[in-house]
Amino acid sequence: MSYFIKEIFYSLQGEGFYAGRPAVFCRFAGCNLWSGKEVDRKSAVCKFCDTDFVGCDGPEGGQFQTAIELAEKIKKLWPGEKSSRPFVVCTGGEPLLQLDAGLLSALHDKGFEVAVETNGTILPPEGIDWVCVSPKAGAQLLLQSGQELKLIFPQKGAEPEKYAMLNFQHFFLQPMDSPDLEMNTRRTLEYVLSHPQWRLSLQLHKILGMK
User: Fold this and answer.
1) pTM for the model
2) Is 172 contained in some domain?
3) Which residues are catalytic?
4) pLDDT recorded at residue 80
5) Is 159 helix (H, G, I), strand (E, B) or coil?
């Protein structure tokens, strides 16, 4: 199987449970909720995505012919300290359109702890170390368990109450980054304070001006 990758880079995890943790990010091209083209945004299931996942032209991106080839590329970007386990975040777009058992095995063979950030509309291969699901209004949520649920807030039709009883270890609300960010942040803070099952997630990488 070939893998189509927009970009691969080393940075800090900016959101959710592992915010501040160094990681290699592997951004898969393609998504099942939006083409990624502005002309299609109004008709997309997810209209607020701010990520470029179209094509394979980003830093270290490309078409990788085998899982081993891609895993080796990812490993080269890890600084190599032996005191910490390498950490890779598979993101997108929608990574579960491509992330399969073969690639997961190849990454584990390289010593990586593997996390995935998914919209939850596709079931993952077994053995992923950290599953973060970010539900989107209007999309069928098939993946209803994992380590982390991170809900962009507010979304009409994807209110937190719909997900509070699902089988996740951690629940995060993240203010929607839009022209209404200040108001969204205030509303998110109010909701979290009133519903302490949830925790606040901020986009640390944007605050710090990082990738």
Assistant:
1) 0.95
2) no
3) 25, 31, 46, 49-51, 117, 205
4) 75
5) coil
